[in-house]
Design a protein that fits this description.
elongated; single chain; 14 helices; 16% strand; alpha+beta; 10 strands
């Protein structure tokens, strides 16, 4: 149904339901369809049970709406497509629900950011007397197709990258339980900062930290798993890449006077991946190492240190590196070019993981 300014159609529906007519106009613009179905009608039209339709709806992150007429033809089509994948045997019902949940969680955060941060700045009323919604409608109308195309483009790019990693896996088990380097980077003293800074200042600091960390992780070949305000979690396929990211994070933040100190903890080992997140003892160990790392320093576990030594990214000891250099000089050869240095620290008990031996990771001169 075409939206007009005469008070009919969706505007009339808004008046009847008590909802803001302009909010309904925005909804109709974004969804590209009018409200036609109750949840029961949508399920019946899609050919699925009400129970399965409710599971899909909740998995996407939407609240129960009773039997209000709030669903569109697009909702019916989405239900039909998911159910069709199950009927064709391409997905199990549980997997289809996971698809709905992972997509809903990811896009919900994106949508919140775009409205709160992006559109908020663009829709400041230019003239007195104009409401924000009146300005928002034409802005959304112009941006919607461009943002939609960009979203699909980025999704396809990410899908291609993930598919490439999967086909390179050694076996089926490695697709789920993989050996990865996992790192946590944490702002020191963030809780104290929250008591001293204004909310706007704090928000700007967190955004700057997340943006800088995300850029460095991506640029150096890692994958940002998630951000938690004062902390970021990232992963890399090899220890050398993760080590480079950690040291670049420390070096970059140290040159920014507006940022507090940073500490990083990393571990290497088997990691379970699920819905874009990572789990397991390796992740827990990286988190614990972060909590005990000195300011502006990087701690790694023994497995991580051994992997750097195995790949010749770091010497087993400085004495060994000096001996190798002397031998190479005597024979007129180039000594090994190690990027990183490792220093064993005191063993200590770590809650839930027993006694661990952290290693201090630093960059070697010329590394």
């Amino acid at each position: 149904m075409t939206v007009d300014d005469s008070g009919s159609g969706e505007d009339a529906q808004g008046a009847d339901s008590g909802e803001d007519p302009l909010a309904l106009r925005l909804e109709g613009l974004i969804l590209g369809a009018e409200r036609r179905y109750t949840p029961f009608q949508a399920a019946r039209s899609a050919g699925v049970s009400m129970e399965l339709a409710s599971r899909f709806w909740r998995a996407m992150g939407f609240a129960d709406i009773g039997q209000a007429k709030a669903l569109t033809e697009a909702d019916v089509l989405a239900l039909r497509r998911l159910a069709g994948l199950v009927e064709a045997g391409l997905l199990s019902e549980a997997m289809a629900v996971q698809v709905a949940r992972s997509t809903g969680q990811t896009t919900a955060r994106l949508a919140e950011w775009q409205i709160d941060s992006f559109l908020e700045g663009l829709t400041e009323p230019p003239e007195p007397g104009m409401t924000r919604t009146e300005v928002t409608y034409p802005i959304v109308e112009l941006l919607l197709p461009e943002l939609e195309e960009f979203l699909v483009y980025v999704w396809r790019r990410q899908l291609a990258a993930s598919a490439g990693r999967v086909v390179q896996a050694a076996d089926d088990e490695e697709m789920v339980d993989r050996r990865l380097a996992v790192g946590f980077a944490d702002l020191v003293g963030f809780t104290r900062l929250t008591r001293r800074m204004e909310e706007e200042e704090l928000g700007e600091l967190v955004e700057a930290f997340e943006t800088t960390a995300a850029d460095l992780v991506a640029a150096n070949g890692g994958r940002l798993i998630k951000t938690l305000g004062d902390e970021v979690l990232y992963a890399a396929d090899d220890a050398g890449t993760a080590a480079e990211i950690a040291l670049r994070l420390i070096e970059t933040m140290a040159h920014d006077e507006t940022m507090p100190e940073l500490r990083v903890g990393m571990a290497f080992g088997t990691v379970t991946t699920r819905m874009g997140d990572v789990f397991g003892t390796t992740v827990n160990l990286a988190s614990r190492l972060t909590s005990i790392a000195p300011k502006d320093a990087v701690l790694v576990d023994t497995a991580f240190a051994e992997e750097l030594i195995r790949t010749q990214d770091a010497p087993a000891s400085e004495a060994e590196a000096a001996e190798e250099a002397a031998t190479a000089e005597k024979e007129g050869e180039e000594p090994p070019a190690y990027r990183f240095a490792l220093q064993p620290m005191w063993q200590r008990p770590v809650r839930g993981l027993g006694v661990v031996e952290p290693w201090l990771l630093t960059r070697r001169e010329g590394g």
